[in-house]
Specification:
Elements: H1 3-20, H2 27-46, H3 52-59, H4 74-88, E1 94-97, H5 104-118, E2 123-128, H6 137-147, H7 161-175, E3 180-186, H8 193-208, E4 212-219, H9 222-232, H10 236-242, E5 245-248, H11 255-263, H12 279-283, H13 285-289, H14 298-309, H15 313-319, H16 323-340, H17 349-359
Parallel strand pairs: 1-4, 1-5, 2-3, 3-4
């Protein structure tokens, strides 16, 4: 365990403690609760993880089980780099498309955390597109306000909701000492053409007050159709503001990329934080200590992917195997491997095939 790793964990727990300690009626109760938290940190970092029973006891807390971790794949790096460049250039109109379960939402979450650290003078907001039955401007503005935690129901009668929305964004900019806000919209294909007209009006309103709104749209392939419809309806201003540069997000397209992905579980990803227990070792200690690595399973896994999906080579090269199903099978493999762990353990094609077939319909793998 490193000092910095422990410090990070202590800081996170203290923040959660402070957020909830106001509910304690007596100070001594709060102190007792905090002492228990500190004891839990000691227990987590001091426990001997070599016995399997200790790791089984900790497995329920493992970040892998509820996917509280991120692997910086090529697709996420590209998404981050393009978003960074456009934010720095103060340009709006970047958009990404991809099939469902390709890791688009993960890319947004990872990138927004990074950009807030790398560009602290820019405000970042995110929301999800939605098929709103009420297509009025007021309903759209209220939806955005509520997405960002503003009690839209508390707005007084006679107050223009679009002004409240613009002011909220201005406040976000003021809090970071800047004049720019980057809005990332997930499932952007669910908004309609008229919603993007409202978004353009918001853009113009902020611009007239000296503030810059940049958008990054992320959605499924229907987003391309939405762009085409917007263009056909002669909403050139909308297209030129929000649909300028399109990029595709794909999955795992080559055996080498699959090997690279699997190898992250052998090196970069570890639990507990700061301990020399990569994910693959945590679940398969005996095999790991004898030289086995999850990255070495790429050949068996790739064979299983091609067999179960029955996908043609062109399909794989175009869109790739979808990230969500790839990762789900890895989780299942490591959990199963924990029970089978031995010095001679290794996976088989049939093991990977079974996991893929249990996880989803074969037609969704590519």
């Amino acid at each position: 365990m490193t000092h910095s790793a422990r410090s990070v964990l202590e800081m996170q727990i203290n923040q959660r403690f402070l957020a909830h300690s106001e509910g304690f009626e007596f100070p001594q109760v709060a102190d007792t609760f905090k002492q228990r938290l500190e004891t839990s940190i000691d227990d987590l970092f001091d426990v001997d993880l070599n016995p399997k029973k200790q790791r089984i006891g900790l497995a329920a807390r493992h970040p892998m089980l509820d996917q509280r971790y991120t692997i910086l794949t090529h697709e996420i790096e590209q998404f981050h780099n393009l978003s960074y460049d456009w934010a720095i250039a103060r340009k709006s109109g970047l958009y990404f498309t991809g099939l469902h379960r390709q890791g688009k939402t993960t890319a947004i979450k990872s990138t927004i955390v990074s950009l807030r650290s790398e560009l602290p003078f820019i405000a970042f907001l995110t929301c999800n597109g939605q098929r709103l039955t009420n297509k009025s401007k007021e309903a759209f503005c209220r939806y955005l306000l509520e997405s960002w935690g503003y009690p839209a129901s508390a707005i007084r009668r006679g107050v223009r909701v679009e002004n409240v929305l613009a002011n909220l964004i201005i406040v976000q900019c003021a809090e970071v000492g800047g004049i720019q806000c980057v809005l990332l919209i997930d499932e952007a294909q669910l908004f309609s053409v008229v919603h993007y007209r409202y978004l353009l009006e918001l853009w113009n309103s902020l611009r007239s007050q000296g503030y810059i709104l940049c958008t990054i749209l992320v959605g499924q392939m229907d987003l391309l159709q939405l762009r085409a419809i917007t263009d056909e309806l002669d909403h050139g201003a909308v297209v030129s503001r929000f649909f300028v540069s399109g990029h595709t997000m794909g999955g795992i397209k080559t055996p080498s990329k699959l090997e690279e992905l699997l190898s992250h579980y052998d090196v970069e990803l570890s639990y507990p934080i700061g301990r020399e227990w990569p994910y693959s070792r945590f679940f398969c200690k005996e095999a790991f200590d004898r030289g086995w690595r999850l990255g070495g399973e790429w050949r068996n896994y790739w064979t299983a992917l091609t067999k179960v999906s029955n996908a043609k080579e062109k399909e794989i090269k175009t869109s790739g195997f979808r990230m969500a199903w790839i990762v789900d099978a890895v989780h299942g493999f490591l959990l199963d491997a924990m029970a089978k762990d031995s010095a001679s353990f290794h996976g088989t094609v049939s093991m990977w095939e079974d996991l893929l077939q249990q996880g989803t319909d074969s037609k969704f793998i590519v």
